[in-house]
Amino acid sequence: MLVLENVSELLTMDPTPVAGALPRGEALLAGIPKAAVLIDDERIVWLGPESERPAIPAGAAQVIDCHAGVVTPGWVECHSHVIYGGDRAADFDRRSRGLSYEQITAEGGGIQTTVDATRGASLDALVAAALPRIERLERHGATLIEIKSGYGLELAAELRMLEAIRRLDALVSADLVATFLGAHLVPREYRGDRDGYLSLVIEEMLPVVAERGLAEFVDVFCEEGAFSIEESRRVLEAARALGLKTKVHAEQLTSSGATAMACALGATSVDHLDHINADDIALLAASSTVPVALPGATLFLGKSSYPPGRALADAGKVPALSTDYNPGSAHTANLPLMTTLACTNMGLSPAEALYGVTRAAAAALDRSDRAGLLRVGGPADLVLFDLPSYTHIPYDFGGNPVKRVMKGGQGIV
Ligand SMILES: [Zn+2]
Questions:
Q1: What is the DSSP string of 196-216?
Q2: DSSP E strands: which ranges in 50-93?
Q3: Which of 210, 262, 276, 284 makes an SS bond possible with 248, Cβ 3.0 to 4.6 Å?
């Protein structure tokens, strides 16, 4: 038995549903002041006010004093690209000198450089490079992490990326979720034959991925310069026909209709949303699709068009938050920083931002009943903060406020 005591605020994120609608404001957190948690055999066996804690015989439990700090559920990183070869520091240098995306590509940079480096990396090399990145995410509170393929863009290299996720799942403490992103970009060798590449994704890659059980989700980068609405729809429909769940990179750089398309197809999540409009927000509110905001990408690309977090929350859809950790547009594992950006640039309250990195992010991975919340009988995945209240998490910005991370009651950080 393990006891967490002297918790100033225990955020369970387990609000009782109120007539189908989420509670507003601080009630989202379902917080318990001056709380304690009892853990046995990897599960939570009791939680509640310290004053009501069941008596435990002396010596029968290990006690962790939380020093009047905050305890939250394990955080969920619901959108990452942490498996890749090489890096894109040279691109960052070019971008900082004012070069456009086209100029960077002309100088030999851009996403194709990551594709080349990933294709050239062995399975062992991909695993070795990704391991410290996943550990960085764990140090920032993540106990459940989604990882995408999408830098192979040919059958063997895409399968190698997904195989790397499977291997890493056995090596790290966090639970990993695999997403196939073969439709990330049309690779160089198919530039004049877009249909040829789509056929490769739909007719060759997807069936193998499904048959081998290498991915739970299929994602498409629906954007100017990547895949059109119609092309994206073809990939997503093929994925659904194979029994795979879907996600869409939608409206990051332009307003395209990708959100409406994804909602109509019943996608589990739509991610980015920097350029969605009021109609898209109404569609999202009426659908089961989870909006995911990636404010770190907006920041790192030097843009000002953050996703409309306030409008989404007002419509009853508090967006999930994620780092988008990837070598080009968001090279960070700092999930707590995303809560700060959500407050300063998206109009969310600290309570909504914390909901965004836990329960909402779990919903974006179709795990809202199992992850991102604390309840009796559930897994003891928790994050401890040496801070006096939850508002200090986004307020204490830029560093890492995480004190301790537990997965199944075991300390991993
Ligand atoms: Zn992404």
A1: HHHHIIIIIIHHHHHHHT--S
A2: 62-73, 75-77
A3: 262
For 282-308, how does the pLDDT look when each residue is reduced to its tens digit (9 = 90+)? 999 999 999 999 999 999 999 999 999
23-32, 82-91, 263-272, 285-294: range with lowest mean pLDDT: 23-32
CA of 324 to the centre of ligand 1 (A): 5
Q: Which two tokens stand for residue 377?
A: 């009988």
Closest CA to 182 of 160, 167, 166: 160
User: In degrees rounded to 5, what are phi and psi of residue 292?
Assistant: -120, 125
Structure tokens at 56: 């435990």
Distance 405 CA to ligand 1 centre (A): 25
How many Cα atoms are found within 13 Å in the side-chain-facing hemisphere of 184? 21
Q: Which residues are paired to 32 by β-bridges?
A: 10
Cβ–Cβ < 8 Å for 361, 76: yes
Distance between CA atoms of 318 and 108, rounded to whole angstroms?
A: 39
Strand locations in 322-387 (E)? 382-385
DSSP letter, residue 280? H
Question: In the predicted model, what is the mean pLDDT of the chain?
Answer: 95
Give the tokens for residue 390.
């939850």
> What residue ranges in 74-141 does DSSP mark as E strands?
75-77
Alpha-carbon radius of gyration of the chain:
21
CA 232/CA 108 separation, integer angstroms: 27
- Where residue 18 falls among pLDDT bands split at 50, 70, 90? low
For residue 219, report the distance from its CA to the centre of ligand 1, in Å: 9
| CA–centroid distance, residue 37 to ligand 1 (Å) | 36
Rounded to the nearest angstrom, the distance between the alpha carbon of 323 and the centre of ligand 1 is 9
Structure tokens at 116: 């080349």
Kind and range of the H or E run holding 159 = helix 155-171
Whether residue 101 has pLDDT greater than 90? no
Three-class SS state of 410:
strand
* CA–centroid distance, residue 299 to ligand 1 (Å): 14
Distance 49 CA to ligand 1 centre (A): 40
pLDDT above 90: residue 235? yes
Task: Say whether pTM exceeds 0.85.
Answer: yes
